[in-house]
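Q: My labmate handed me this sequence with no annotations at all. I'd like to see what the chain might look like in three dimensions before we decide whether it's worth expressing. Could you predict it?
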Amino acid sequence: MRTAVLCVLLAIAPSHLQGQDLNARLPGPTTMARLSGPRFGATFLPSRARAELAEHGIEVNGVISQFGWQFERLFLAGDGQMAAVSEFVVLIGGLDQGTFLPSINWVIGARHIGGLEFGVGPNVSAAGSALVIAAGATRRAGSMNIPVNVSIVPSKFGTRLSLMTGFTVR
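A: Here is what I predict for the chain of 170 residues:
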């Protein structure tokens, strides 16, 4: 019985598959834009994170400066309402206090045509690896995009909160 059912399915499957248009099953073409630019802001460190840094001889206050660079890829879909975003943000924290605390973030998310955006991804910093969750808005100013974002990084040393801005250009 199984053999008979299999033979019938194999006999009708090729004619059914021939009737499908492969292009109808694929998404439309996507346009990609490369954007990059400086980022700056501040990160609020929980006491557990500051204590962990102090154990390694790094004394910082509860708020540190952040300076860095954002490398962004924006993928524009055909309807133009939403765009997929992939960005790498490389930062140096603590320069205002004579400290070098590097971090790198890879955020994957979406941006609405009105500028609202959100994303998540990995964060690697002096505190180890964690997940970064970011949200904000990007406004156009001539040929520049000006993002303002809030990010939360929960980790084993407490939750860090950052407020960042900057600009990106094509």
